[in-house]
Write a structure and sequence with these properties.
By secondary structure, the chain is α+β, with helices and mostly antiparallel strands. 60% of the residues lie in helices and 15% in strands. The chain is built from 8 helices and 4 strands, in the order ααααααβαβββα. It has a 4-stranded mixed sheet with strand order 2-1-3-4. α1 crosses α6, α2 runs antiparallel to α6 and α4 packs antiparallel against α5. The longest helix is centred in the first third of the chain and has 18 residues. It is elongated, with a radius of gyration of 22 Å.
């Protein structure tokens, strides 16, 4: 079965339940932290996916590591994923959960690429402008890439706003190449 389909099913079920119980904020926060941890260190996922280990041992490790440390519904999901041998999809499930969470709250993930690091005031100004343009709440992730020379590139959901000097130079180059010299 497709990984994204599996992730969507688990995330959808969890999201529906946590919305009903009004604990989505807590679950989203804990799930993001867990996903970041799992991306950095895959040892736990490898342990939980190891076929030579008993499920009871895996459940015991999950209980020791997560019970009382993450939201109860997230803990239950982790136990369910272990029982169903779907632990390899935990990071994808977290991503799908976050997507559902953000959509429900009008939050759009935005990657902002700049040539140099920006100050907090500059980031706040850009975030405010993007909020106004999109009509949505912006969840900003920044990246520095000197190759863009100057300016910014904002990837807002599935839209790209490219106000970089590199882009402007590329456009200028294309226009100059189209000119006919007489």
């Amino acid at each position: 079965m497709d990984a994204q389909l599996i992730a969507r099913r688990y995330a959808g079920g969890l999201f529906e339940l946590t919305e009903e119980k009004k604990v989505s904020d807590e679950v989203n926060r804990d799930f993001n932290e867990l996903a970041n941890l799992l991306r950095q260190d895959r040892a736990l996922l490898q342990f939980l996916a190891a076929p030579q280990l008993l499920d009871s041992d895996k459940h015991a490790v999950v209980e020791t590591a997560f019970r009382g440390k993450v939201a109860d519904y997230l803990y239950s999901l982790i136990q369910l994923v272990v029982a169903k041998h779907r632990t390899n999809f935990l990071v994808e499930i977290a991503a799908e959960y976050e997507k559902l969470y953000n959509e429900s709250r009008g939050i759009v993930a935005t990657r902002l690429i700049t040539a140099v690091p920006l100050t907090e005031a500059e980031l706040a100004a850009i975030k405010t402008k993007l909020n106004r343009i999109t009509g949505k709440q912006i969840d900003l992730e920044t990246e520095v890439d000197p190759k863009i020379i100057a300016g910014v590139i904002a990837i807002v959901g599935d839209k790209i706003i490219d106000r970089s000097v590199r882009h402007d130079l590329a456009v200028l180059r294309e226009r100059l190449l189209e000119l006919k010299v007489i």
